UniProtKB/TrEMBL annotation:
Official protein name in the record: Oxygen regulatory protein NreC
InterPro entries (alphabetical): CheY-like_superfamily (IPR011006), NreC/VraR/RcsB-like_REC (IPR058245), Sig_transdc_resp-reg_C-effctor (IPR016032), Sig_transdc_resp-reg_receiver (IPR001789), Tscrpt_reg_LuxR_C (IPR000792), WalR-like (IPR039420)
Biological process (GO), any one: regulation of DNA-templated transcription
4-aspartylphosphate carried by residues: D55
Coiled coil (UniProt feature): none
Protein source organism: Rubripirellula reticaptiva
Any one GO molecular-function label of the UniProt entry: DNA binding
Assigned keywords, A-Z: DNA-binding, Phosphoprotein
Domain Response regulatory residues, every copy: 4-120
Gene: nreC_2
Residue span(s) of domain HTH luxR-type: 165-230
Amino acid sequence: MPIRILVVDPHEITRAGIGLACQSREDLKIVGEVDSIDEAVLLTPETNPNVVVMDPRSCAGDGLEELLRYRNAFPAIKILAFTGNENPAFAKDVVECGVDGFLIKDASADELCWAIRTIHAGRIFISHSHHGVSSPQHEKTVDSNIQKRDANALEHPNHLAMENNPDAQIDLSTREREVLALIADGMTNKQAAAKLFLSVKTVETYRARVMRKHQLKDRSDLVRFAKRHASKTLELQPTG
């Protein structure tokens, strides 16, 4: 049975983008979309979602009071805060309202879907740039095994598995795999761009996503990672 998702965002283009990201995934299903938390409160009993992807700013003010009202009204529903506000103080306030995940809107479609699956499975998902944000409530909900892992493992549960098992599946899109394979071959950004008929800027973006997803600190880490997984990058279908 697919994960039922209600989308709450004030911008039609964002709602459409979330729908597009989910529609090709058989395990994800959009059951409704609204532009405010007030409307979400009314639509939730009718649509019965498992997960709500919600911009906390989908109402007047900072949205925290309405977010908390929704959380209290539907305690069993998982909430992914999906926002463009990167302020750590705002992130901390949102997390303390009891959301199950926090993701910045520059995330890829794969990351969004991974976050939805993660919180539906009962784990906490925090965007990489905010992995230090937590709350006592969340610490109680994460099981003891996950608590023993670092924040990187909470974001990408396959990260530790990959370090221990180079043959494990890696969380990359098709384009990211292609770029990674060319990096493993020793190509520069310019050479990879020419090979894939992309701009250098686009290749740099894909590289940055790979590094963010798998906690790679610099080019040396990236090259080692690319070589370690080069035999798998083009064989595997993209996750999600």
